[in-house]
Amino acid sequence: MDRLRFSPIAAGLPATVPFTGPETLERRRGAPFIARLGANENGFGPSPRAVAAMAQAAAEQWKYADPDSHDLRHALAAHHGVDPAQIMLGEGVDGLLGLLVRLTVAPGDVVVTSEGAYPTFNFHVAGFGGQLVKVPYRDDAEDPQALLQAAARHGARLVYLANPDNPMGSWHPGSTITAMLDDLPPGALLVLDEAYAEFAPAEAIPQIDPADPRVIRFRTFSKAYGMAGARIGYAIGPAPLIAGFDRIRNHFGINRVGQIGALAALADQDWLHQTREKVATARDRIAGIARDNGLTALPSATNFVAVDCGGDGDFARRVLAALADLGIFVRMPGVAPLDRCIRVSCGPEPELAAFATALPQALALARTA
Amino acid sequence: MDRLRFSPIAAGLPATVPFTGPETLERRRGAPFIARLGANENGFGPSPRAVAAMAQAAAEQWKYADPDSHDLRHALAAHHGVDPAQIMLGEGVDGLLGLLVRLTVAPGDVVVTSEGAYPTFNFHVAGFGGQLVKVPYRDDAEDPQALLQAAARHGARLVYLANPDNPMGSWHPGSTITAMLDDLPPGALLVLDEAYAEFAPAEAIPQIDPADPRVIRFRTFSKAYGMAGARIGYAIGPAPLIAGFDRIRNHFGINRVGQIGALAALADQDWLHQTREKVATARDRIAGIARDNGLTALPSATNFVAVDCGGDGDFARRVLAALADLGIFVRMPGVAPLDRCIRVSCGPEPELAAFATALPQALALARTA
């Protein structure tokens, strides 16, 4: 008997990973990137108050974080006007998505998502033996009707939708989301990933009773709050579902510095407002760079812009590779037709300027390859 | 169909949690603890070099951590004289134990541990549908022979042993551990939790080929390195098993500040050496406090001391409750006969002095209750 054998589900999983980190790419190319614009990180950084709180908390790292995240959870509850029992903190949205799948999906259960949507969610679904059913994007946006139809046809347990969407940056009005809930098949739960919500226009955010048993929402400090490294995400949903996470989560999994930093970041809504303005300016800048190169930037309600490179996926992949060679880290959608685009994260002007310099060269290289 | 239904395994899990955090206890009592000596945290704190590195890293929290933990993994490999492919970083030993169970245990598989040993490991085994078989401690230490016999009798998939042990602080010589490997039933993997290894005498640490397919070891920055809040643990084991973690882990789950801090902490072995000496002094101090109160401190190879309160579990629980009322946070083993003890973490003298002041009062209260 092989001592190193894996459990049946794990044995059937591929050895691939959802994303290769930029540090790995830097090691491969033997030099650091000039511009880190690929992971939808927020180079405008955390609130100075959060930075100060985290720096001060460093000496107290000998303590575990509060496993209940009491102070942060209560502050978030007040911020969102929900009950603290309707909020669960976790190691980023990624960690929480994994827990949600584990909590709700039995092997063989169907989970519906969009072809080209968040790979890490798919990683978790496969990781717990769920069966993924994917529907195509429509007009570079996730397609609520197609998702609902697939959910009904397959008796889906979960339906994943990101609003605003990653990787395309598109968004649906909140009214479309609430209408989706009314048409959601019995037994299905909507997984509403709102990681980019703070960048979106107000009308993109649906008004949903947090006790509504049809949906669980996910938010994060990684994007608008500029704290991807802290790994602090949270779910908002009905209390019985939120309580379920306590059955399976790593109770002491959140790091203390991040927890303290997130509380300080939440209290600095002025910084968040300034970040939104900087990101809006950067989106326009990226669109201008695209235009200057004869390319089209897609409208975005996020901190990144999908730039249509005007060719097929192979062409965009050549642009991406050429940009990486020139020191510019960006990523791109994984499937056609979305993969005609590259995805450029908003960042400070020096990095966007480096992108502006590199893009014409990358396009020329891609065209002659 | 209930939208909020849980998957069959999750539905069968209790809503309990392995440990209540001290912050929760503080909120219940309405005041902070005077002495935080219950979670085997290390109040002597992280290396000042780690603190400085973490403080400096705070402003860079907008970046995700390197998901491969390349630099830290390679530094640990050099430190332990193993290959980087034999090391996996994770969100504390707790997080890694959960992943190991998920990776190796199918529902119904038997996992052997000791009655009274690490509750969080049991939490994970139950959480993935494993069947726990527990053997009693012998002479306040885990019992390798009993573990092996149970493993053979039940065809165990995993056998858990902490060396040094938590919650009793006892330890086996490394030669006992390597002998265990030779008697491990086919198909069983030894889960060797060495969270407290750095506090133990050198002869407690077995010499094991990291490629040995019979065992996976766990280490942490939470204890001797004084960085519990950072959530940086690691596994050392055969590369094919280590690679398996990549199939299921939250690749971006580690926080960046902790990752950077751990690298700096590892480089400051002088601080680790000083911490070992401070902890040894604190162990003697706790033993002296016990003696002054007519109690017996058990020998310890860790950063905590089990103090035999001289009565049964109910008596020790009354002592624990009285100590908490007096502002002293300690914990205790969960089952008889271990629960005649309270478990006191080593810490700086002011906290131990507060414990020394409170203990006689707590004992008096417990005796008159």
TrEMBL record, chains A, B:
Pathway: Amino-acid biosynthesis; L-histidine biosynthesis; L-histidine from 5-phospho-alpha-D-ribose 1-diphosphate: step 7/9. The keyword Amino-acid biosynthesis applies. One of its GO terms (molecular function) is pyridoxal phosphate binding. The keyword Amino-acid biosynthesis applies. It holds the Pfam family Aminotran_1_2. It is an enzyme of class 2 (transferase). This is histidinol-phosphate transaminase. Residues 36-359 form the Aminotransferase class I/classII large domain. PANTHER family: HISTIDINOL-PHOSPHATE AMINOTRANSFERASE, HISTIDINOL-PHOSPHATE AMINOTRANSFERASE 2. Coiled coil: none annotated.
